[in-house]
Exonuclease domain-containing protein
Amino acid sequence: EEQEAWALYGIDCEMCLTEAGLEVVWLGVVDEAERVVLDVLCRPGHAVLDAHTRFHGQTQADFCGASAVPLDEARRQLRDALPENAVLAGTALQGDMAALRVAHPWYLDTAVLYPREPVAPCGKSENLPNLGTAGVAVSLQRLALHQLGQLVQVRTHSPVEDARASLRLVKHKLRCLEALRVRYHSPPHLPEEVSLRALLG
């Protein structure tokens, strides 16, 4: 039986700081056509120390109000919304997945797909060699501007907007890799299970 094609979904979370650490307050998911699949406010489970309103625009009254749902309910909605063949596209997904307390087998992260920025060593010692650094991931805002020529996060962050931007960046990278594969007649270095042909249709 022929394997069903993979389906890309963009995902992003906005957080607040609570007594337990960072907790999800806003979850956004879009499908491959950038249609909104989920756009839900999540009620944190612990006392809020910093709502992070300056980042995402939502106040504590917003994500603790009647329209917000507990994280378990948001996770249930996410599980119901994603098909078994879903591949998640996002930026710095490790943090989002940890905050959601969700494990997913297939994802493509712009923080991994795109080169990292070098950073200067914090300190030097004459007795130790300069081992260099792995660098830091380029922000979604800068990636979208430099790779796609698009402005995102102009004022505050929306997880739906960020999910769309991440999805576009992943598609852009996959198209570039596919072009290289065609040009040099060799597959790019990606897991066999997530083939470019399946992802790009």
